[in-house]
Design brief:
This protein is an alpha/beta fold. It has twelve helices and eleven strands.
């Protein structure tokens, strides 16, 4: 349905905007309705906040939902928060155009991290697990085609800045996470927030257009061609959403002759995060002593797999460069945790639960190390 919707719309023209919304909003409503099957209020202490924009022409606030463990020590999170618990920033998927798996996957991830904490004898010997007061913040960033790149990134950066600097959260560790399009946002947000001493970032099956020699980007890759049949996610929708996010007109006459993946854009929607030099520069300009640890998930059967593998090689190069400049340091850079699943895009949340659980256990362990490091 979405691939039939217009992309370049004059949103100041009421009739034109209404026609576009009448095409797009029913699909968004279906996904949001499906998300209601998970009752966040039954599982967590929930707090909804709006962050006002201080710059830009958009007067709408950034909407954010904060989750804490049910019956935690202080359900209300205030600006005077003195918690020393971890903060997890979570960006949902949906091709930057819909809210895919917003609450359901966040609840699965956060809920399982708490399950691990409840069986962790090291922390339960004390009064509270370090995860008891942890906060996961779900950002409802602006969607395309109404809002094009870098609107979503700006919203997520604003949210993280508000949580850390205005609400005093994350003193026990800052962890950035995202799934699919949200994973792409997690990459850029981490890159551009290195001065906050990000501890880890969880990049799950990111949507990464790859660079071409002519300075453009496209989704073309071996996996995009190999798994175009999988329809999970549909490759025509992946290309439509790329155009929507970058403000490209659809040219049906030209595109009908192109193989999948060959639509190119002049916009790097990763914000420079698939360039090792940008990571090295950001690290050098920060006061961080360690690179954030990367937890990366890709999937066989996923058209987007090769983009994630490409990023893995980029980040390996960054680690190599940083370690080369500090050869005698006793503090080695954290290594990448790379997970390859076999059940297609986001399929491991349902069909490969042991892989999901093992990944969460290792991410929990990293959070625990970061918590100890930050407090000591």
């Amino acid at each position: 349905q979405l691939v039939k919707c217009p992309i370049t719309v004059d949103w100041t023209n009421v009739q034109e905007a209404d026609e576009a919304k009448s095409c797009i909003n029913p699909v968004r409503a279906i996904l949001e309705k499906a998300d209601e099957f998970v009752d966040l209020n039954a599982l967590f202490d929930v707090q909804v906040i709006d962050i006002e924009r201080s710059v830009g022409g958009d007067n709408s606030p950034v909407h954010m939902t904060l989750l804490k463990k049910k019956a935690s020590s202080d359900a209300a999170i205030t600006k005077n928060n003195d918690s020393k618990a971890p903060l997890i920033l979570y960006m949902h998927g949906g091709g930057f155009t819909v809210r895919g798996g917003r609450g359901a996957l966040a609840a699965q991830i956060f809920g399982y991290l708490h399950q691990i904490g409840e069986t962790d004898n090291d922390v339960n010997d004390s009064a509270n697990s370090f995860m008891d007061d942890a906060v996961i913040a779900m950002v409802d960033y602006r969607l395309a085609p109404e809002h094009q790149y870098p609107s979503a990134t700006e919203d997520c950066l604003l949210a993280l800045n508000h949580l850390v600097n205005d609400m005093n959260l994350g003193r026990g560790g800052i962890h950035v996470s995202g799934i699919s399009a949200g994973a792409t946002l997690a990459m850029e947000v981490t890159l551009k927030s290195m001065d906050m001493n990000i501890d880890s970032f969880y990049v799950d099956e990111p949507k990464i257009p790859l660079p071409s020699k002519d300075g453009t980007w496209s989704l073309d890759s071996g996996s995009f061609r190999r798994y175009s049949y999988s329809r999970m996610p549909p490759v025509d929708w992946l290309e439509w959403s790329l155009k929507a996010y970058t403000g490209m007109e659809t040219n049906h006459e030209v595109e009908s002759t192109l193989p999948y993946g060959m639509i190119t854009t002049d916009v790097d929607i990763t914000g420079g995060s698939i360039d090792a030099a940008n990571w090295k520069r950001s690290f050098d300009e920060s006061n961080a002593t360690q690179l954030p640890r990367l937890f990366l998930v890709t999937a066989n059967g996923d058209p987007l797999k090769d983009g994630g593998v490409y990023f893995k090689h980029i980040y390996e190069e960054v680690i190599k460069q940083v370690e080369a400049e500090t050869p005698n340091s006793t503090e080695r850079q954290p290594q990448i945790k790379y997970v390859e699943t076999t059940s297609g895009h986001t399929g491991h949340y349902i069909f490969e639960l042991p892989i999901f659980e093992d990944t969460m256990k290792e991410w929990y362990a990293e959070m625990k190390r970061a918590h100890s490091r930050k407090l000591n």
